[in-house]
Design brief:
The complex is a heterodimer of chains A (about 220) and B (about 475).
Chain A lengths: L1 E2 L9 E15 L7 E14 L3 E5 L6 H9 L6 E6 L4 E3 L12 H12 L3 H6 L1 H8 L14 H12 L6 E5 L7 H16 L3 E6 L2 H7 L2 E4 L1
Helix pairs in contact in A: 2-5, 4-5
Chain B lengths: L2 H17 L4 H13 L3 H14 L5 H13 L2 H14 L4 H13 L3 H14 L4 H13 L3 H14 L5 H13 L2 H13 L1 H12 L16 H21 L6 H21 L7 H22 L2 H4 L1 H6 L6 H28 L10 H22 L6 H15 L11 H8 L2 H13 L7 H25 L3 H4 L3
Helix pairs in contact in B: 1-2, 2-3, 2-4, 3-4, 4-5, 4-6, 5-6, 6-7, 6-8, 7-8, 8-9, 9-10, 10-11, 11-12, 13-18, 14-15, 14-18, 15-18, 15-19, 15-20, 15-22, 18-19, 19-22, 19-23
Classes of the chains: A alpha/beta (about 220), B mainly alpha (about 475).
C-alpha cells in the first residue's frame, strides 16, 4: 500500500485505520479445518475532515470490503478502526426497492433504510419526483420502470444524504446522458463542498481529477 | 506549441504570403511564429515590410512592440506604443498593447490605467477583462487575481481561462481543493461552482441535505419496521388478482377443510370438537407461519445489510409484524365462526388481548432466536419444519387435556405454546377467565428470553454481515 501527496492534509483526523485486516472464511466449519481468504491486510490511513480521499485498486483488491469496514458494517479481524464520533454512510442506491410497489412507497422505504426519518423523506417527495423526472410514473409500480428510470429514482432519493463522511463506490453512472450529467453535477457538488468523501475507484485519472490524495490497495 | 510546430507554422505562413500577400494577418502571424522561435531579425524584417504595405493598420506596429519587448528593448516598445496611441485612438488592440508594454516595463499602475480604458470602452469584449486578471497574476497578487477571474467567469462563462487560470492562482495560494474545484467547474459550469461555495458557507443541515444518525433511535427503528411490514403486505397483495381478499379467503378455506374433515366426515371428538380444534389451530398457524417466515430472514437480508447500516433485528421483526397484521383478520373470522357455531361473545373474550400479547412476545423471542442462529448453522433450516410438526402434536391441538395422564400434565404445560393454546380455549370454548398464573409464567419466561435476545443481537450485530456471506 502506498500513499501519495500527503502534504494535502487539511482538517483534523476523524477516522483512523491502524493495520486493518479482514479475512473471509472460504470453506470449512465445524468438521473441516476452515480456509480463509485475506481480503485486506495491514491497511493504515487517516481520514481528515473535509478531504476527498481516493481509494484505488483493481477488481478484488478489497475496495468494497474497506468501505464496509469504514462504514462500520463489518469489523476488522485484525488491527483497529477508530471513529472520532462522526457519522459515516455508504451511498446506497436503490436500497430495499420492492418491484411491486409504486415509486413513492419505494422512495419512502429506501430513504428510511438509509437513515432518514419518514418525515424527512415525505417532505422531499416532491423534490425527488421532480429531480428524477418520473412524473406520473412515481405512482406506478417499480416493476413497470425501465432500468434507467429505476436508477434515476434511486439516485434522487440518495442524493439528499449528507453524513459527515460519505462513502462512494465508483462515481455513479445513472440513467441516460442528460440525467447522468445532472446526477454527476449534483454529486460533484457534494464531493467539493466541505463534505468528507471516501471515493473508491479503479481509475487513476478519476482519482486525480477529484481527490486531494489517494491510496492504492 | 512546440518548436517543431512553430517551424511548420513559419513554412506555411511563407506559402500563405505568396498567395495572400495583401492580407496583413499573413505577415503579422508569420512574424509571431518567428518570434516564438527566437528568430527576432527575421520577424523584424517581415514586420518592416508589413508596415510599408499596410501603413494604415495598427497590427504590424503592435506586433513590433511585442517583439521589442521580447528583445528587451523596452524603450523602443514604449515609443511604439505611444505612436500607436496617437495614430489609432480608441482602438482596442492598441489599448491592450499599451497596457502590455507598460506591464512589461514593470509599471503596473500605468498598465492598469490603459487596461481600464479598454474595459470601459469595450465592455462587451473579453480581452480587456482577461488582461485585467492577468495583470493581477503578474503582480503575484493571487487573491486579487481570483476575484478578477471570478468577474471574468461571470461576464464570459464560456471562457476556459476564467476557470483554468483561476485554478493556477488558487494553486499558487496553496488552496488545492479550490483549484480542483475550479478545474471541474469548467465542466459543470459557473452556477455549479457558486452553489458549491454556497453550501460551504451554509449551515450543516440545509433544506437540501440530511445528515443521517449513526444509530437510529428506537422510534425511528419502530417506524421503519412498521413501514416495511405494511409495504410488504401491500406488495404481497398486489401480486394477486383478488389482492386483500386472499387474507380472508385463505383462513376461511383452511377452517372449512378442518370443519369438513373433522366435524362432518369423521365426527370425531363429539359435539363442540370443531370449535375446540379451531381455537387451537388458528393461533398455532399464526405461530408456525411466523417462525417459518422469519427463520431465514437475516440470511435473506444480506444484500441490504451490506448496503446500509441496520440492526439485524429488523429482519425478523418485519416478518412478525407482517404476519400479525394478517392474523388479526383471521382472528376476526374465528370470532364470527364461533358466534355462528353457538359460542357468542362473553365478557371473558376481553382476556383475548393479554393472551395475544403473550403469544406475540413468545413468537418474537422464538423467531428472533432462530433467525439469529440460522446464519451460523444453515442446516438448522431443515429442522424447523420438523420442529413445528412436533410442536403441532405436542401442544394439544387435536386432543383435549384430559386425555393426558395426570403425571405428564405438568410436563405438557412446560411447552409454552400448549399453555397459551389452553388459555385461548378457556376464553373461547369454556367461557372462563384464563389461568392467570400459567399465563404469567409464560409471560415472565418471554421477558427473560427477549432480554437475552436483544443482548445477543447487540453483541452479534457486527458479526452478521460477515457470517451471512460466508
Amino acid at each position: 500500500m502506498k500513499s501519495s501527496d500527503l502534504n494535502g492534509m487539511c482538517g483534523d483526523v476523524i477516522i483512523s485505520l491502524q493495520n486493518v485486516g479482514v479475512r473471509y472464511k472460504r470453506r470449512g466449519g465445524f468438521l473441516r479445518k476452515p480456509e480463509y481468504f485475506q481480503a485486506l491486510e495491514g491497511v493504515s490511513f487517516d481520514i481528515h475532515r473535509g478531504e476527498t480521499l481516493g481509494i484505488l485498486g483493481r477488481n478484488g483488491a478489497g475496495k468494497s470490503t474497506l468501505l464496509r469496514v469504514v462504514a462500520g458494517i463489518i469489523q476488522p479481524d485484525s488491527g483497529e478502526i477508530v471513529n472520532h464520533g462522526v457519522t459515516v454512510s455508504l451511498l446506497a442506491l436503490q436500497a430495499g426497492f420492492d418491484a411491486e410497489l409504486p415509486g413513492t412507497d419505494n422512495a419512502i422505504l429506501s430513504g428510511m433504510l438509509m437513515g432518514y426519518t419518514r418525515k424527512q423523506v415525505e417532505a422531499r417527495l416532491d423534490d425527488i419526483a421532480e429531480f428524477s423526472e418520473l412524473g406520473d410514473f412515481m405512482y406506478e409500480p417499480v416493476k413497470t420502470y425501465s432500468s434507467g428510470m429505476k436508477s434515476r429514482l434511486g439516485f434522487s432519493v440518495a442524493m439528499y444524504m449528507t453524513p459527515d463522511v460519505l462513502l462512494l463506490d465508483e462515481v455513479l453512472s445513472v440513467g441516460d446522458k442528460d440525467f447522468k450529467k445532472k446526477a454527476e453535477t449534483e454529486m460533484m457538488k457534494k464531493v467539493h463542498s466541505n463534505q468528507t468523501v471516501l471515493l473508491v475507484t479503479h481509475s487513476e485519472q478519476q482519482a486525480k481529477r477529484l481527490c486531494e490524495r489517494s491510496i492504492s490497495l | 506549441m512546440r518548436q517543431a510546430e512553430w517551424d511548420k507554422a513559419c513554412e506555411r505562413w511563407a506559402i500563405m504570403r505568396q498567395v495572400y500577400f495583401d492580407e496583413v494577418a499573413v505577415w503579422v502571424q508569420a512574424a509571431i511564429a518567428h518570434r516564438k522561435l527566437g528568430q527576432f531579425d527575421l520577424a523584424n524584417g517581415l514586420l518592416d515590410s508589413a508596415r510599408e504595405r499596410f501603413p494604415d493598420l495598427p497590427d504590424p506596429l503592435i506586433e513590433l512592440a511585442m517583439l521589442q519587448c521580447e528583445r528587451g528593448c523596452l524603450a523602443e516598445a514604449e515609443a511604439l506604443a505611444a505612436e500607436l496611441r496617437k495614430r489609432f485612438p480608441g482602438n482596442l488592440a492598441v489599448m491592450l498593447n499599451s497596457a502590455r508594454v507598460s506591464a512589461r516595463r514593470g509599471n503596473l499602475s500605468e498598465a492598469l490605467v490603459f487596461n481600464r480604458q479598454a474595459r470601459e470602452t469595450f465592455e462587451e469584449s473579453s480581452e480587456p477583462w482577461l488582461q485585467y486578471a492577468e495583470l493581477a497574476m503578474q503582480a503575484k497578487d493571487w487573491s486579487l487575481a481570483l476575484e478578477r477571474w471570478q468577474e471574468v467567469r461571470q461576464r464570459f462563462p464560456k471562457h476556459a481561462e476564467g476557470f483554468t487560470r483561476a485554478a493556477v492562482a488558487a494553486d499558487a495560494l496553496g488552496d488545492g481543493s479550490q483549484a480542483r474545484r475550479l478545474r471541474l467547474a469548467q465542466e459543470y459550469g459557473n452556477a455549479w461552482l457558486e452553489s458549491v461555495q454556497d453550501t460551504d458557507l451554509g449551515e450543516n443541515e440545509t433544506a437540501h441535505t440530511i445528515n443521517p444518525p449513526q444509530r437510529r433511535n428506537w422510534r425511528t427503528f419502530a417506524d421503519l419496521v412498521w413501514t416495511k411490514a405494511r409495504l410488504n403486505l401491500k406488495s404481497e397483495a398486489s401480486k394477486n388478482h383478488l389482492r386483500y381478499l386472499w387474507w380472508i379467503l385463505d383462513p376461511v378455506l383452511y377452517m372449512t377443510v378442518f370443519y369438513v374433515v373433522f366435524g362432518i366426515l369423521m365426527e370425531r371428538g363429539g359435539p363442540g370438537f370443531i370449535a375446540y380444534l379451531l381455537t387451537g389451530l388458528v393461533p398455532f398457524q399464526w405461530f408456525a407461519k411466523t417462525v417459518q417466515h422469519t427463520s431465514n430472514s437475516i440470511v435473506g437480508g444480506k444484500g441490504l445489510m451490506h448496503k446500509v447500516r441496520i440492526s439485524p433485528l429488523f429482519f425478523p421483526l418485519v416478518g412478525i409484524v407482517q404476519n400479525t397484521g394478517k392474523q388479526l383478520l383471521v382472528f376476526g373470522m374465528l370470532g364470527i365462526f364461533l358466534a355462528l357455531y353457538g359460542l357468542p361473545p362473553t365478557i371473558h373474550w376481553l382476556a383475548f388481548i393479554p393472551i395475544v400479547l403473550v403469544q406475540l412476545m413468545l413468537m418474537t423471542a422464538v423467531s428472533c432466536t432462530l433467525a439469529m442462529l440460522v446464519p451460523f448453522a444453515r442446516d438448522l433450516t431443515n429442522l424447523i419444519p420438523t420442529g413445528i410438526q412436533f410442536l403441532l402434536f405436542t401442544s394439544g391441538i387435536f386432543y383435549t387435556i384430559d386425555r393426558i395422564p395426570e403425571e405428564w400434565r405438568s410436563l405438557f404445560f412446560t411447552n409454552p405454546m400448549a399453555n397459551i393454546l389452553y388459555q385461548y380455549r378457556q376464553v373461547f370454548v369454556e367461557n372462563q377467565w384464563p389461568d392467570w398464573s400459567g399465563l404469567g409464567w409464560v409471560a415472565l419466561g418471554c421477558v427473560v428470553g427477549l432480554s437475552m435476545v436483544i443482548f445477543l443481537y447487540r453483541r452479534l450485530e457486527p458479526i452478521f454481515p460477515r457470517v451471512v456471506i460466508e
